[in-house]
């Protein structure tokens, strides 16, 4: 079976070098057979101008498939999560009918005050306060005056999966708690939307940042509960950090791909630098994604975060010696 990966930008800001490196590695792993998906379900944060900029960035780096080659809004509906809300709601209802989703009226403060468990990637562990408490969402709202969220009733055996960089991993549901499937502002959660999309769009391999490692366990749990397939292969790669040792983020506007392009950076130089920073090639040199396909090997990938220094930017922008 031909592998199918995906490039899934969230248009909540401008893409930066860290985003670009993950996209490049995902593209190389799938040998260019990737699906583009705009993960814009967080409507308060996601903006059309960021979607347009992301398409331009990926065009610049030659990472898109032919059907999404243009940098306009003419994307197919299956490539835009915000157009698939009814589909996600249908799967939420299926989970609720099975008894694997329940309404929750707890506020963030309620959870903070009730839980002495440690914080993980999504905040404090939910203590299960609303498990079995409400008949349905109307009952919950009538008794509290709050619009409820919906949580996944996560119990049973651990989720076991293999990460290509970290080996076999086991995640016990009790260590992460019941997570949100549907937000109080009537939007699907990242976990539900991505879990459903990866299954229905036939994604066979997922490469993304190491911050989403625990999300993999949650998404596999959702897929199993819905009787949907999960991707066969996973790889969670290290970050690019700034000189202060912080993970690169969309707040770092000067290091966005758009900013680098406007400062004169060449796309081939950026691509070659990203490949070198990940451990694929021995020295930074200009290259296209197509030229790097033969160099890709998961065993070559660094397991450590890469710290971006001024000398690296000098090479990217001016060809200065490092």
Question: Which terms summarize this structure?
Answer:
2 domains; elongated; alpha/beta; 322 residues; 12 helices; Rossmann fold; 3-stranded antiparallel beta sheet; two-stranded parallel sheet
* Beta-strand proportion: 5-15%
Note the gap between the termini.
42 Å
SSE arrangement, N to C: EHEHHEHEEHEEEHEHEHEEHHHEH
**Count of extended strands:** 13
Strand order of the largest sheet: 3-6-9
Determine the number of helices (DSSP H or I, runs of at least 4 residues).
12
Molecular structure report:
By secondary structure, the protein is α/β, with parallel strands linked by helices. The chain folds into two domains: 169 residues, Rossmann fold; 114 residues, HUPs (Rossmann fold, 3-Layer(aba) Sandwich), CATH 3.40.50. Helices cover 35% and strands 14% of the residues. It has twelve helices and 13 strands. The strands form six sheets. The chain has a three-stranded antiparallel β-sheet. It has a two-stranded parallel sheet with strand order 1-2. The protein has a two-stranded antiparallel ribbon with strand order 4-5. Helix 1 crosses helix 10 and helix 7 crosses helix 8. The termini are far apart. About 2% of the residues have low confidence.
What can be said about this structure in brief?
The protein has helices spanning 17-29, 48-60, 85-97, 108-114, 137-144, 173-176, 190-200, 213-226, 257-262, 267-278, 289-292, 310-318, and strands at residues 5-7, 34-36, 101-104, 119-120, 123-124, 149-152, 159-163, 167-171, 180-182, 205-209, 233-237, 240-241, 306-307. The protein has 322 residues and is α/β, with parallel strands linked by helices.
